[in-house]
Design goal:
There is one protein chain. The chain is of the alpha+beta class. It has two domains: 242 residues, 2-Layer Sandwich (BirA Bifunctional Protein, domain 2); 88 residues, Rossmann fold, CATH 3.40.50. The protein is built from 15 helices and 16 strands. A hairpin with a 7-residue loop joins strand 9 and strand 10. The radius of gyration is 27 Å and the shape is elongated. The two termini are 49 Å apart. The protein binds histidyl-adenosine monophosphate.
Length: 416
Amino acid sequence: MKFQAPKGVSEYLPGRSVAFDYVRQTLTTAAVSAGYQLAELPVFEDTELFARGVGETTDVVTKEMYTFEDRGGRSITLRPEGTAGVMRAVIEHGLDRGQLPVKLWYTGAFFRAERPQAGRYRQFYQLGIEAIGLNDPEIDAEVIAVADRGLKALGLKDYRLEITSLGDAASRAAHRVDLDAFIAKMNMDEATRTKAAINPLRLFDDKREEIKIQMSKAPLLIDYLSAESRTHFDRVCALLDSYGIEYRLNTSLVRGLDYYTGTTFEFVHEKLGAQSAIGGGGRYDGLMRQLGGADLSGIGFGMGLDRILLACEAEELELLDSDGLDLFVIALGTESKFVASGLVNSLRSEGFNIDMSYGDRALKGAMKAADKSGARFSLVIGEDEVASGQISIKEMETGESQTLAITAIADFLDSF
Ligand code: HAM
């Protein structure tokens, strides 16, 4: 029997894994630079947490969750997203009783039983941040700026930021009255009408031409913002302007999760085809209370690392090999190998990235391995080198060599 990975999962192996790690590291750096602290969270949670947090009627909860009964008869779900788990941890551990906002970042695998296609996986990776406890436009702008800084640090250019406000409860109630009246007069099948009765905003995201045409005249939530929501949103936009972050107002932006209120946004890459959302997020006013915590607001984002890597590849960006090897050591002969192995071991302890040739490879094969390793330098140790204590170290890119004492290798590598 030949095993294969389960259908639709993403995995990163040598060749791409360094680039993937570089994407994750770059976004992490952006989060840490703004004072976010790591939250390492469980990959599975109580099913009810997602049903209540993400929304009972969302596609994520009704169709896409990996839910199973554990050995104790509890209903468990592999996390489809990160925000609900973060809120659970904040409430459970009382993190909101200290300084506000609580600022956390997290990364890892997430799971949604979607139909696999390019850029859409059943196991995928996100890096997210959440700022919990204050409803302040400066925080909204900070969260968006962190994501944007991460994307720019990777060198990405062909993406846009779409932003809107879903307003507060009063704004949404006023809009809902007019939207329901508008929908009542629309032509649609019964199934669509039932869906619209639960969350009419989803009709803005309907891909069918006949619905799209009708919805193009529907009343927009942005025109119903309360004075408070309007002021908040205007301030967020003014802050983004002042940071030089470009954005496009998308008044029909619909997110797949139900907890959003106020500022809501998505980063869209122009070269990714159908699965073009490389990240998204927004504010969630009622979520914490909904999950049994205090009535505090929060805002955050989830960036899709798989899609961001695809976007980097589409833009042909050179992602730095941050973990590259400093040196590849080739040893010839049993005695030399013993010496080389000791040298490699001590250089690794000093913090250098070193690999060496193993087995009984001839010099030619070992040189090939050195080439493939991507190491910056290589050296050969044979009987003569062991006897003299001198080696010749070669810079792989230029082919230039210089001779130095074996004891001076660490200082030599350090000088780069
Ligand atoms: P989301 O928009 O559902 O938001 O997911 C965030 C990002 O994860 C998407 O923009 C996309 O890049 C990536 N993603 C989602 N599903 C898949 C998939 N099946 N395959 C590959 N990539 C995928 C959230 O998850 C929210 N928790 C974000 C958030 C945090 N909002 C507030 N705080």
